[in-house]
Write a structure and sequence with these properties.
By secondary structure, the chain is an all-alpha fold. The protein has one domain (about 15-224). It is built from 9 helices and no strands. Helix 2 packs across helix 9 (about 195-224), helix 5 packs across helix 8 (about 165-185) and helix 7 runs antiparallel to helix 8 (about 165-185). The longest helix is centred in the N-terminal third of the chain and has 33 residues, at about 20-50.
């Protein structure tokens, strides 16, 4: 079981907290992250599409986002929870900007449908992870391989000029399972502020990926 937690040997060095408070911190971090994303989408979504119409500005925008994500990953390795929180924000900010561009191109009805669908997936997978925790924890290597293969297939199809619509369903399935896995992993590690932030980051990314792919599917079905 320890092999599932890459930094398990160091987790016990951090101050423990009550498990219920630990889960509240995870939930609070998720609410905070999605609230920031919602604000960015509401106030800057249309502006982003207008400003980024220029090629050089678009390149600079994506380079900046990539740098933020890299810094977020680097800061997540720090033993300091404040630094981890800064890293979380550096993940939320670029994703919020990306979501702002995406949701501004579709109707609010589609966005609401994707949000509701994502919520259903999240509730079902977390509930399933409580029923079959060992099953979800055993998926760790398989999910990583499946995601890597899917991304490679998408890249090849894109370069060859083929559609990648079917991979949206595969990605939703993968990240739905990841959601169950990450929730169970979060409840297996030492309950601390640092681990709550890191766990929330993983769950946040799972949910965002499900939402984006589901929104793409809904948008295509609307056009058809």
């Amino acid at each position: 079981m320890d092999a599932l937690h890459l930094d398990r040997s160091q987790l016990y060095r951090y101050q423990e907290m009550d498990r219920s408070k630990y889960n509240l911190v995870i939930g609070g971090m998720l609410v905070y992250g999605f609230f920031v994303d919602a604000l960015i989408c509401y106030f800057f979504g249309d502006i982003l599409n207008y400003v980024l119409d220029s090629g050089p500005v678009m390149i600079g925008f994506f380079v900046t986002n990539i740098v933020c994500v890299i810094l977020s990953v680097v800061l997540s390795s720090s033993p300091n929870a404040v630094v981890n929180f800064i890293g979380y924000n550096l993940m939320v900010l670029p994703i919020g900007l990306m979501l702002g561009m995406v949701v501004s191109a579709v109707s609010y009805k589609l966005v609401l449908g994707a949000l509701l669908g994502t919520g259903v997936f999240a509730v079902l997978m977390i509930a399933a992870s409580f029923i079959k925790p060992e099953f979800f924890l055993s998926l760790w290597p398989t999910l990583g391989i499946a995601l890597g293969i899917t991304v490679a297939v998408e890249l090849v199809l894109f370069l060859l000029g083929f559609g990648t619509e079917f991979t949206d369903y595969i990605v939703i399935a993968i990240f739905s399972l990841y959601l169950g896995f990450d929730w169970q992993r979060a409840n297996r590690v030492t309950p601390s502020i640092r681990n709550a932030i890191l766990s929330a980051t993983q769950i946040y990314l799972d949910i965002v990926n499900i939402f984006i792919r589901l929104l793409r599917i809904l948008a295509r079905s609307r056009k058809n």
